[in-house]
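User: Fold this; tokens only.

Assistant: Input:
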Amino acid sequence: MSLTTALSIAQQSLRSTSRQTATVSRNVTDANNPDYARRSAVVSSEAPGSRVITIQRASNNALFRANMSAISSYEGQATLRVGLNGLTQSVNGVDNAASPATAIGSLYQAMQLFATTPSNASLAENAVDAARQVVRALNDGTSAIQATRTDTDMQLSVAVDELNTLLADFEQTNNAVVFGTQAGRDVSDELDRRDSLLKKISEYLPISTFTRANQDMVITTSAGATLFETIPRAVSFEPKPGYAAGSTGNPVYVDGVPLTAGAGGSTTAGGKLSALLQLRDNVAPTMQAQLDEIARGLVNAFAETDPTGGALPALAGLFTWSGGPSLAPDGVVSAGLAGSIRINAAMDSTAGGDPRVLRDGGANGAAYVANTAGVASYSALLIGYSDRLDAPIAFDPSAGAGENASVMAYSTNAISWLENIRKQATTAEETKGALLTRTATALSNETGVNIDQEMSLLLELEHSYEASARIIKAVDEMLSTLLAAIR
């Protein structure tokens, strides 16, 4: 081997070592970046010497897909859990203190106390005031549910805008990957950026990807709708300015295909969008239906009937509603009844009424007066009202809180339904969060940076650098000796 060849080999080795050292240094610098994939300088041996072929980026497609799926599943579950907690707080209050069930329990006690001393005007006022609290709980609950649906619409609108922004960013990054690949340059940074965007997109809806020539990527939803192919596909949504009981919201469209809402406490929703749709179109309407059924049960339980047993129709008594004085049909949800229920003015002292009408009857005219003699100790109607609160009636099964129960039991069932789905959502969030952590850890172990490994490699490169430097020094000494001999 000539001295010139030896010098050339040493120089190429130094260049290779320099490139490898720069790669290791970059790995160490980005070791704590979760979106950074480890680089490796791939070196091949060729006479006379060695050279760096390319920079290889660590990847594991199977683990990356599993991680994206876990992200979607967790984000959907977390969104549902947060929404359920918000509904619980706004509708039922802390420890259910503001719930209709609590208010109905207080009304039941006030009615029984009034029945023991029907001549006491203060107890009559207390009973009617307890009924006001029931009305307030139902009215406020309805307002809170519809406000939640409106707020969820706004969250959907914001999320759709964010998703469209991410898709626009993805287009730029994907183009950089394709053009860089075509030009034969290292596109590792662009691939990191693209994977980061894919993870963020997965927070909104579950996705699948496949790669074409020049690392060009196509994104579809798990349902098969195209989300990105060369250019982003439209994700659209039109929010509504407000909601009323029984109204429906607009769908979210992905490339013209409506997105499906999640279902269940351990939700099937993948990503935020489906979970928000579940809150708006499933959970909140179900809660509203339960409130409407409770309100219907109360109106019917306190209805005035013909005291003679004749053919007069039953009409709304202590509680009336927008469709009063007629009663709502049995066993069927009357949408919005909980929002329109109110105290009958004939018994409401704040509206010029007399609370003693609750004891005597007659809110619907003289024909409905039961205590015709005006006996101060008359309690038959009061006892009857309490009995009706405890008597089973038919409820609409679509409301999800039972089909045959008393008004008091049904109101408690409504709380149990919500608490059960909250418990399921919380447990599922913990499970899906653990899965997300495991997949992220597994992916990091495969593609992330191990500082100890990098420092060990850096030490090996230092030794290689020293060896090349010694060769150059030896060649330099030989050339100096040769030149000295020639002189």
